[in-house]
């Protein structure tokens, strides 16, 4: 079932979750262990992140360094297939422009189509570690709107090989990312909204936001999106703070702010246990307000850890 149909068809709000595939060397049982605690909430779909290969330099026995490409996690297609085999839930693999050619993206979409997976999230992805700016590979995409257009073309039966005749159309529902505090590369909020509108006009069916800790920024984001002519559903994305490291890491990594009220409570904490509990309380407050204001769903960035997420859902929904 498509995510857009789930959003339009559910009369009650629900929680969805985003999972990070386990590191290479783990088996599917570790993946299942991260999914099983969440299934008691009957999520209609699970998002699966994807990660581009990394470039590393490893020292050789002769003292020289060799540039090597390293894959650290299994691909989202394999992870999606494993989850579908074990659980009754829709899976939503992420597709990224980073590190992929147009042909490789098409092949991934064909694999997903043969698995009867109807949902994807189209993202640009991050720059290679150590690079300041995102650089597409040759014959790749610089912006996620181009990825959305490719998926929309396949949904019309238009493939990269224009000699194919009578191609069977795919049937993908496409989610894209939205940024209540704007994408860190966008020069201002208005241009960032214009780029989001381009993705929706290209064929995106719904939007999932980057995490935020100030609900006012989400409500303002939705208001500005509607004023810009964006009518598709906008799902708020939430993540509870759980460690002292998050206080520095999350604002830096995701270009987001932590509200003063939240910081006042966090700085009172003597250890990670206190921060963990403050993170739960703040997230419960966010969720209750979002639901009271009519949110159809709340998307949780679990990072494949679920104990705090479970408590938040039980206290919010």
UniProtKB/TrEMBL annotation:
Q: What class of enzyme is it?
A: oxidoreductase
A single GO cellular-component term from the record reads: cytosol
Coiled-coil blocks: none
Matching CDD domains: MTHFR
The gene designation is: metF
Q: Which GO terms describe its biological process?
A: methionine biosynthetic process; tetrahydrofolate interconversion
NAD listed as a keyword: yes
Q: Which GO terms describe its molecular function?
A: FAD binding; methylenetetrahydrofolate reductase (NADH) activity
Q: What is this protein called?
A: Methylenetetrahydrofolate reductase
Query: Which InterPro entries does the annotation name?
Result: FAD-linked_oxidoreductase-like, Mehydrof_redctse-like, MTHF_reductase_bac
- Which domain of life, per UniProt? Bacteria
Q: Please write the reaction equations for the catalytic activity of this protein.
A: (6S)-5-methyl-5,6,7,8-tetrahydrofolate + NAD(+) = (6R)-5,10-methylene-5,6,7,8-tetrahydrofolate + NADH + H(+)
What are the UniProt keywords, alphabetically?
Amino-acid biosynthesis, FAD, Flavoprotein, Methionine biosynthesis, NAD, Oxidoreductase
Q: Which organism is it from?
A: Candidatus Egerieousia excrementavium
Q: What is the lineage of its organism?
A: Bacteria, Pseudomonadati, Bacteroidota, Bacteroidia, Bacteroidales
Q: What is its EC number?
A: 1.5.1.54
């Amino acid at each position: 079932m498509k995510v857009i149909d789930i959003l339009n068809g559910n009369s009650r709000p629900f929680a969805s979750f985003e999972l990070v595939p386990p590191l290479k060397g783990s088996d599917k049982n570790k993946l299942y262990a991260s999914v099983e605690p969440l299934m008691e909430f009957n999520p209609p779909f699970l998002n699966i992140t994807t990660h581009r290969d990394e470039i590393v330099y490893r020292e050789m026995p002769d003292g020289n360094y060799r540039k090597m490409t390293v894959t650290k996690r299994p691909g989202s297609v394999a992870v999606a297939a494993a989850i579908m085999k074990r659980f009754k839930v829709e899976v939503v693999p992420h597709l990224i422009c980073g590190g992929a050619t147009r042909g490789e993206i098409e092949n991934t979409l064909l694999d997903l189509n043969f698995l009867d997976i109807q949902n994807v999230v189209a993202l640009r992805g991050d720059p290679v570690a150590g690079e300041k700016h995102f650089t597409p590979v040759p014959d790749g995409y610089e912006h996620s709107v181009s990825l959305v257009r490719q998926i929309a073309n396949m949904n019309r039966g238009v493939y990269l090989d224009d000699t194919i005749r009578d191609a069977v159309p795919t049937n993908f529902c496409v989610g894209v990312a939205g940024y209540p505090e704007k994408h860190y590369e966008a020069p201002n909020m208005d241009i960032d909204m214009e780029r989001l509108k381009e993705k929706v006009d290209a064929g995106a069916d719904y939007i999932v936001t980057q995490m935020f800790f100030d609900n006012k920024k989400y409500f303002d984001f939705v208001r500005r999106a509607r004023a810009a002519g964006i009518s598709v559903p906008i799902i708020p994305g939430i993540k509870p703070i759980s460690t002292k490291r998050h206080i520095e890491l999350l604002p830096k990594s995701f270009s987001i702010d932590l509200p003063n009220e939240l910081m006042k409570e966090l700085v009172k904490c003597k250890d990670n246990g206190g921060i963990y509990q403050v993170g739960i309380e703040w997230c419960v407050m966010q969720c209750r307000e979002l639901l009271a204001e009519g949110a159809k769903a709340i998307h949780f960035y679990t990072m494949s850890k679920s104990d705090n997420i479970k408590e938040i859902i039980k206290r919010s929904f």
